[in-house]
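Whether sequence alone determines local backbone shape is best considered at the level of individual chains. We regard such an encoding as a compact summary of how the chain folds. The sequence in question and its structure tokens are set out directly beneath this paragraph.
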Amino acid sequence: MTPINIIASSLGVSSQFLTKRFKNLTDEIIEKNKYLMKQRTKKAKQSLPQYKKFETDDYKEIEEKLLAILHSISDEPIYIKDILKELGKSQHFTKFFPEIFNSIKEANVVASRRKSERTYRERCKVLKEVITSLLGMIFILG
């Protein structure tokens, strides 16, 4: 699927020139491109994720799952996108449990902060060990 303007520029002519000189051929290319675009759109629609419908019977069960996820967040954040994917729900689903999802967001911020602080402390420890080692080498050599 190559647009007429790309074909024209590769040939070193304008698309108007091609359209005037080779009307039938350019019309055929345009129709084929339209057909291919429709086919691509159909395939894209088929490959979209299919979300489960939200039944009110599932409300309590899903609420319990979300609360369990919320309480499991400690050092590693669990992103809402991943939670929704696991539940088979779309982003729109967050409106049914706004308090829980807001709490998950806040817990993720705290977990990210903890993770950053832990990483910082670990790197400081390694840096301190390297500096101590280098100082030891200097005193031994000196």
In short: The CA atoms of residues 21 and 76 lie 64 Å apart. Residues 56-141 form one domain.
